[in-house]
Structure formats: structure tokens, C-alpha cells
Task: structure prediction
Amino acid sequence: MTPPASSASGHASPASRPIAFVGVGRMGANMARRLADCGHRITGVYDTHAPAAAALAAELGTLHAKSLAEAAAAAEIIFTVVSDDAAQLSVFADPAGGTDSLLAPSAKPRGKTFVNCATLAPATHIEIARRAAEAGAHTLEACMASSIPQARSGTLYLMCAGETEVFARLEPLLRQLATDLRHLGPAGRAAQAKALVNMVMNINTAALAEGLGLGQALGLDLDILREIFAQTGANSQVLKTDGEDMQNRAHDCFFSAAHAAKDSTIAWHLGCETGLHLPLAAATKLQFDKLTALGLGHLDKSAVAELTFRGRHA
Amino acid sequence: MTPPASSASGHASPASRPIAFVGVGRMGANMARRLADCGHRITGVYDTHAPAAAALAAELGTLHAKSLAEAAAAAEIIFTVVSDDAAQLSVFADPAGGTDSLLAPSAKPRGKTFVNCATLAPATHIEIARRAAEAGAHTLEACMASSIPQARSGTLYLMCAGETEVFARLEPLLRQLATDLRHLGPAGRAAQAKALVNMVMNINTAALAEGLGLGQALGLDLDILREIFAQTGANSQVLKTDGEDMQNRAHDCFFSAAHAAKDSTIAWHLGCETGLHLPLAAATKLQFDKLTALGLGHLDKSAVAELTFRGRHA
Result:
């Protein structure tokens, strides 16, 4: 276990600054557990699903914040791990509207730093950074290209974007969450890179589903076919993570089809904005949209195979 | 270097049986060189491009056959390494028509074995096997999932199909060409598996081109983006083989876009025959068809990036 950082100066080190978490699903909760293990003070947790926050608060012996403002008020560094763009914009709602918000006056946002981990449209991160700056707060986007076990063990792959000074200040803290950590530039840059990672990953996933589905329809032995794929130009990371699951219809969720649909849509929008013709990105977006429309968005992204194997849901 | 096989029995061992090559482009020529290095007797070479056959015949000190029938007559095992289905059907033309053919009476086909290495529609291999059987000859399909350097060094990945007895008889010979060798079943099975390998490979290639093209349009550093892809769910074999080439427009041909178009079309036909909905396979076929229609089919398959990067050929 990495020991907590210490500071000989009079300034608060990242290790000593109180930390809150907003959004404590499996990713957020595991990140909080990891930082607590490293000796950091987790001083508040919040989730729209109150029982999740209550359970984690009890586990970590910390405050179960009943509002966003209360969570932010309890800490100096606030991690947000929410589900999508709408949720992210909502937790940073304009405080002038009087709704609960991380930027409400009672949240005392001035000087605080918000670390936003969801996979979002780049424009959302830019908008959040603008709203936070108006309230005197800082933001850093920290996009994760890894999953729940890596969050627990502090071995995430983190792509960050935001002001260089903010990144530098948080880097020691983030290194306790991530074995790979990059600063890619100003607000929006990490979200762009993350969107591209997930766009290519999702296309490769849908491609694999087509290959295995066609192999099955032709009567080939899929164990052997996957071995062949692994040893040839058809090899990919998703073959390792999703191939056997597609074959066995084992779609327990690690990365949901609904998230894949969302991320492919973010990338597809970027493609539209740039005017590029990206037919595979478009076809893949439609596959994951279809899966979600069929009510299967809660399954793992490997469930895209349900659309290509003969006699399954399609 | 693997020594040639020897046989203590009175029967001819595979090593001692004369071998001819039909189609001596870079793959076929390198396979012939490798077998000659292993001590096999190459007794004839043929190519529709006569200078290629003449040069290889001079290099190996063997017969430059002036017809298909002469090539087949010169050997007991005949490797065919042709470009496509039409070429494969042509070299096995019905001898009743009086055209030059590996099955012409003067080729003395009875008891001979034809090893067919091109990536073809499965139905073509089945038809060739039927024609050869009518002439008293045997066939084995030996689909290669590797490239020119592997042919030279005897480290090919070979997927075979045909009668078990034929495969067993040729296995010692084929092991001098391949480090990975599989028998997948009766005629057509290897072509099916190969079509699926190339279908998935081509989709992943087109996906990578979209990801890098969009990354460039967004102003991301593509060296860093490729590193990120390599460490995340976007990783793939084609990222290793084609990523940097796409970025640098280095499309010297290892596997041509025209071949990719052909192979994606074979897989797309299989999808149509099985009635499956394979939107990514279809979109990828169209991309490589388009590249070929634009006159870029001679470039490496990495040139699909020319269709997705802003300001290139598209």
C-alpha cells in the first residue's frame, strides 16, 4: 500500500486536504476506498441513490452528505463520478437558480477543486470549467480508461485535462489512484481522447461480435476461431475481454451497453462537428443504440453479440 | 534451418516428392525458396507474369514451365498461390475445354496433390476440390494468415482444410513452412476461418483509421493518442501494424487495399448467405471498395486512412 504523502511545509499537502465523493457507484466507491486506504481523509460522500452513499459513509466512517452543497462544503477536493453529461451539468447547476449544486453559496466553492471522472462530451467539461471558474473554483477532468478492480487497487489509467497548475497540484494524489497518468492539455482534451478510445473499442467490440456470430452461423468451432483470431491480424484487446463472453452469452456488466451507446454517440457527434465521414463509428453507434432500445442497455457491451448471433435477440 | 525429412520406407516421403509452384509473386516465391532451403526438390515454377517465373527458375535452378499443364506434369505436389477466385478457377479450368489447365491430360493430374493458398470464397475451394477429384487428384486448402517475411522464414500461420488423409500426408512438408498449422475440416472450412480473420482485421483497420483521423481533426497529438490506444480497450493487432503508417501516410504494400476489398467482400457474401445483419462488415467492405474505386487499391490496407483524415483523398 502506498503511504499517504506528508508535507513539511505549512501548506496543506494533497494528502492532508479533505476529500469528498459525489457519485459512489462501484467506480466512485472504490476510488474512495483506495484513497482512504492510502491515509487520505474522506470527509463526505453523496449519491442521488441515498442507500449507496449511506453504506459507504458507514464503511468509511464519514459524513453521508444529504445534498451536493453539503458534500462540497465538507471538503476541499471533490471527486465527481457521475453517469452522463446531464448528470454532470446538473451537479454543477447554476446556483443562482436556487437548486442544490456543488457551486451553491453554502458549498463554499471558492478555492476548491473538482475532479470530474465521467466520460462526457468535451464541451460539457469546458462548460463545467467555465461555471466553476465563475464561482472561484478549479476543475480537472480525469477520464478513466479502466474498470472497477483497477479503481480499488489504485491502478487506473487516467487521462487528465485542465490547467497545468491544477494538474501539478493534484498529481501526487492522482498517482495513488493511477499507475498511468497523463495531462493532455486544457479542458476538453482528455474527454476527446477518451471518446476516441471508447469509439475504437466499441467498433472493435461490434466487429468481434460480427466475426463470431458469422463463425457460429457457418458452423465453425468458436473456441478454435477465437484462438485463430488471437494469433492473427484479427487480434484485439476486446477479443481478450469480451470474446468468450459473447460466445457464452455471459453479459454480466463491467461496461454497460448503455454506456457504450452514450460514448459512441459522443464520438459520433465529434465526427459530425468536424465534418468527417466515419461510417464505422456511425454503424457502431446504431448497434449500441439498438441494444439499448431493445431494453438490453444494462448488460455488458459484449451483449452487442446478441444482435449478430443467429437466434438471439435480434 | 530445419533439415529435410527422410524416409526409411520404400514410399516416397513428402521431402522427396517433386514440388511445383504456380503463382510466384512475393508469397509464392518465398515459399518455394524456403522449401528449397529445406532440401526439397522444386521441379517447376509458373506464373502468368513470365519474367517472375523465369527469375525464380534461374535462382532455384529449376524448370520455368511455360504452361500450367507443364508445371503440373513436372511435380507431384503443386502449390498454387494465385490472386483471387477467378484466377484459381482459371488454373483449374475444365480440361475438356482444351484450355491450359492444371487438370489437362498432359498435366497427368491423377494421384497428384494441389495445395491452394489463396484467400478465396469457400465455395471456390469446394468447386476446385470437386474438379480435382474428377481428375483423380487431391486438394488441400492452406490459407495463410501471415505475410511475406514469414513465408521466407518458414514461420507462416497456416489454416488447412480438405480430407484428413491428405492433410496427414502433407503435414511434415507444411510444418517446414509454418510454425502454426491447423486442420479445420473438409474443403471450405479454412477459407471460412480466413475470411472471418480478414473481415475482423479489416473492420479493426477501418476503425483505427476513423479514430486517428478524428483525433487529428480535433488537434490531438497522434503519437500520444496511439500510445493511449495501445494501453486501453482500443488496442489491436492492426494498431501495431498500421497505426503509425496511417499517421505518416506510409502505405507501401504489405497487404493491399484491393485484397482487403476482395476479402471483405467474401465475408460480406457469407453474411448475406447466412442472412445475418452485419453492418460493420458492410461498411468496411464499402470503404475498401471505395479506396479501390479511387485507384488506390495498390496501396497497403492502411491507406483506408486516406478516406478518414481531413484533407486527404476523400
User: Anything to note?
Assistant: The beta strands of chain B are 19-22, 42-46, 77-80, 113-116, 138-144, 156-162, 178-183. The mean pLDDT of chain B is 93. Chain B has twelve helices and seven strands. Residues 193-307 of chain B form a domain with the N-(1-d-carboxylethyl)-l-norvaline Dehydrogenase; domain 2 fold (CATH 1.10.1040.10).
